[in-house]
Amino acid sequence: MHQDIGLEQAWQLLQEQCPSLGQELVLLDDALGRVLPRNLYAKHDLPPEHQSAVDGYALGESPNADHSYRLCQDQPETGGVPEVLKEGQAVPVNTGGVLPRGTVAVIPHEKVVVEGQYLRVLGNIKPGDNIKRAGEDFARNDILLTAGTQIEPAALGLLAALGIGEVEVFQKPRIAIICLADNIVPPGLEPDRGQMRDSNGPMLSGFISRQGGVVTSVHYRSVTGTSMKNVLEDLCSQTQMIILVGGTYQNGKNTSRLLMEDAGAQVLFWGVLIQPGSHVGAGKLDNTLILSLSGNPAACAVHYHLFAAPVIRSMQGLPWKYRQVVARCSNGFAKRTSSRRLVRGKALWRDSGWEVEVLPGQKPSMLRSWLGCNALIDLPPGGGPIEAGEEVQVILLGEYTDV
Amino acid sequence: MHQDIGLEQAWQLLQEQCPSLGQELVLLDDALGRVLPRNLYAKHDLPPEHQSAVDGYALGESPNADHSYRLCQDQPETGGVPEVLKEGQAVPVNTGGVLPRGTVAVIPHEKVVVEGQYLRVLGNIKPGDNIKRAGEDFARNDILLTAGTQIEPAALGLLAALGIGEVEVFQKPRIAIICLADNIVPPGLEPDRGQMRDSNGPMLSGFISRQGGVVTSVHYRSVTGTSMKNVLEDLCSQTQMIILVGGTYQNGKNTSRLLMEDAGAQVLFWGVLIQPGSHVGAGKLDNTLILSLSGNPAACAVHYHLFAAPVIRSMQGLPWKYRQVVARCSNGFAKRTSSRRLVRGKALWRDSGWEVEVLPGQKPSMLRSWLGCNALIDLPPGGGPIEAGEEVQVILLGEYTDV
To answer: How far is B10 from chain A (nearest CA, A)?
Structure first.
């Protein structure tokens, strides 16, 4: 067990203990944002045959210098288009239509004059013009999408074009949340004096859903009572991650640490040298990672991004390291910090480079600092105050890097 | 009706005709990503009362120089904490717990020594330490979230903290898709020779869902037959936008233009001076915007981003103008262009500034160019070829600006 470690060491320990995730077959309609566990290959050429790229006329070899062609009669038994186009023949084709053998080029409607059964082309004909060659987008056995790809809309189109109706993806990481504070009541209940409504459950559920995970349940000690050990053990068999939120301090340990130990989890680390919320911890029980995050909402959100999100991404085979940039701080930060401090900010790229604004409400309890937050200013121990215009190191929360 | 206009004029016409969107009440669980039509205000202070920011002890006025206090007995009738803390008294409190009147500061467990009924504080006490003042995050009647805000996870937490269980948001833009090409078959059907599987429906559905819209239905002329006018009219009463995809060229007009006119839509413009796909068009029928996009998948995706996405965002009160930056092209583009051309690229910010890679497969039919695409290189008429290392104008597809 590691005590009071640095952030980078915590990342390393979490990656070493990253839970494994199963795979499942989903319909294409449900595949957006899901991640491929292995490469997908083209079963056939795309397009499967030579096709027209425009609405117009397929032209055979040109018999003469003035580019006049004889129009073929429609051939209903082959979908209106003959199998072969002979010298001097032309036939109307639509975008995506299969081209007859012998097609030299396709010419759009705008560039021809039709006179009865004859057609004259205005301008030059370049062989191959407006022809989509079989396999020009993807040839049979080409890699369509590589392992680790997050399925985007264009990939849905590509898979549909190849007749793929379902696709194997990583399961969604299943995550349960347990709020350990006695004085936190779930949404929908009216708090008594000394109680507070929970904000962490709804906030974490939002963050988790954005990262492709699913919150299976949120438990409240104030409702369930003190038998949290059974709850934790039950959840272990159903989830890859359990997030413990809050937990009161007792006899040098807090509820969440005691709970982990009680359930027989291996404690990976306890305490990370950061502000806000140095009392963060992590454990592992079978294949389930258990994280203990601060109950103060702004600190909880910092912890989520630093400790939970990287594991949720990594489980799915997605890059998990945040991009870090140097940014000019537009407004400054008045405080000096003894520990390494993560200050909530809003980063924006300007023509002159990255700029970051320190958001108002930097106490660990204040949600105001998370509204519009897309970056953490990474202030080293002994750092600050930050002058307006000073350069600072920034962690971009929405951007990841492979390296 | 405007013919063969510039992109900026098309944007202006579309914004002028942007359909209006209704509002609806949704549960907080369903509010992530939705947009507020008006400001939300705090009904009460947050926190509602003075609270402890840590697990520790609330301290009254200090009676002596050595900072020793007498521990209050628990007061079960007030949740364990007395109403008032007198001089020299201390009482245990948990994070978020209400503080008695007369509390000067809260001191965490780690900084005290408890000896029987007495407590000694190690170090100095700064009045106000570890106290969350009532209303310090949000005071009663403060604006919580402004109109036009897209609800993010932290906002869910904030609303939950204030006991707000449902919230008024813009309805999701409802969009129908009609594939007009005779030779396109829907997913699940086996194409005959000369037919192709649809890729545009699944791709557009993915793009639309990412922008907060919902695809109500996808229709195929190859299945429905030629009575598309009735389909269009029916859909008008149920949607804010209808996207016509493809449509074969006939007598100087294409199916989609004829369909719009036939249904009595006001044609806003036809033809935009861009490549790929200059034959794009737009019309309006009652409150429904009708867009006619290219049937070639890569051109269709360009059209979607240039013409449909800005309207879908604008309807919801979101900024719709793409951020445009100058980027260094890492690999170049071999072609010279006569019209203004949108080249699919992948943009990445490096320490030296923006860089963009031209993606492979730039024909209008090739989906390969959309895999990983997050930017359009905006090549002016007569522009290109682009040398590797040359600076180009780039439209960032995932980033928007208010100005």
So the answer is: 23
The predicted pLDDT at position B183 comes to 86
Q: Is B217 left (phi over 0), alpha (psi -120 to 50) or beta?
A: beta
Short-list A249, A203, A143, CA closest to B112: A249
The answer on A194 and A164 residing in a single domain is: no
Residue A59 Cα to chain centre, angstroms: 46
Domain final residue, candidates B132, B159, B180: B132
Identify the pLDDT of residue A77.
47
Contact B160 A203 (CB under 8 A): yes
Residue stretches of chain A with pLDDT short of 70: 73-80, 226, 248-253, 403
Average pLDDT over residues B67-76: 75
Q: What is the mean pLDDT of chain A?
A: 92
Look at the block and give the residue holding tokens 């861009």: B274
Q: Are A162 and B198 in contact (CB under 8 A)?
A: no
Last residue of a domain, one of A132, A151, A186: A132
Given an 8 Å threshold on Cβ–Cβ distance, is A161 in contact with B56?
no
Phi, psi of B166, deg, nearest 5 = -145, 155
Q: Which domain holds residue A118?
A: 51-132
Q: What is the pLDDT of residues B322-360, one digit of tens each?
A: 999 999 999 999 999 999 999 999 999 988 889 999 999
- Residue A340 · residue A380 · CB < 8 Å: yes
Residues of B in contact with A297 (CB under 8 A): 157, 161
Question: Do A187 and A95 belong together in one domain?
Answer: no
